[in-house]
């Protein structure tokens, strides 16, 4: 899987980069199931350590239905990022439509205990036309 970061957002000196890929081998369009995997890189270019606490996702399907997902950490981890450090993780998103989108924010805690809300950029989820059941031209 060729991967490069397609979307990025910077908040308080922290950049969140996203690469997203459709996974045909885990999708079943005939059953109304599509699946994407996304790779996130969080880069701390601020001047202070930040500890990851929570995540909030807004996932919208092709019908405009919105699902909010909140949780602690990312894939079971709550890393501390020192200035200049980054953290990568991979996760996935199933939808019952061939199109949708994701966006959200992470909450980190600064060394003084104050929260820092870091934006996750909007990124589309789009299955290739062939996976939607249309004939390619």
TrEMBL record:
<protein>
    <submittedName>
        <fullName>Co2+/Mg2+ efflux protein ApaG</fullName>
    </submittedName>
</protein>
<feature type="domain" description="ApaG">
    <location>
        <begin position="8"/>
        <end position="132"/>
    </location>
</feature>
<dbReference type="InterPro" id="IPR007474">
    <property type="entry name" value="ApaG_domain"/>
</dbReference>
<dbReference type="InterPro" id="IPR050718">
    <property type="entry name" value="ApaG-like"/>
</dbReference>
<dbReference type="InterPro" id="IPR036767">
    <property type="entry name" value="ApaG_sf"/>
</dbReference>
<dbReference type="Pfam" id="PF04379">
    <property type="entry name" value="DUF525"/>
</dbReference>
């Amino acid at each position: 899987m060729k991967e490069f970061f397609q979307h990025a957002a910077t908040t308080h000196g922290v950049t969140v980069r996203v690469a997203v890929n459709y996974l045909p081998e885990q999708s079943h369009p005939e059953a109304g199931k599509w699946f994407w995997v996304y790779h996130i890189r969080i880069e701390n270019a601020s001047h202070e350590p930040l500890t990851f606490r929570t995540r909030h996702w807004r996932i919208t399907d092709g019908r405009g239905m919105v699902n909010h997902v909140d949780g602690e950490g990312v894939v079971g981890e709550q890393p501390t990022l020192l200035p200049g450090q980054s953290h990568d993780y991979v996760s996935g998103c199933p939808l019952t439509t061939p199109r949708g989108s994701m966006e959200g924010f992470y909450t980190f805690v600064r060394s003084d205990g104050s929260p820092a809300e870091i934006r996750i950029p909007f990124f589309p989820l789009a299955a290739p036309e062939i996976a939607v059941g249309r004939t390619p031209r």
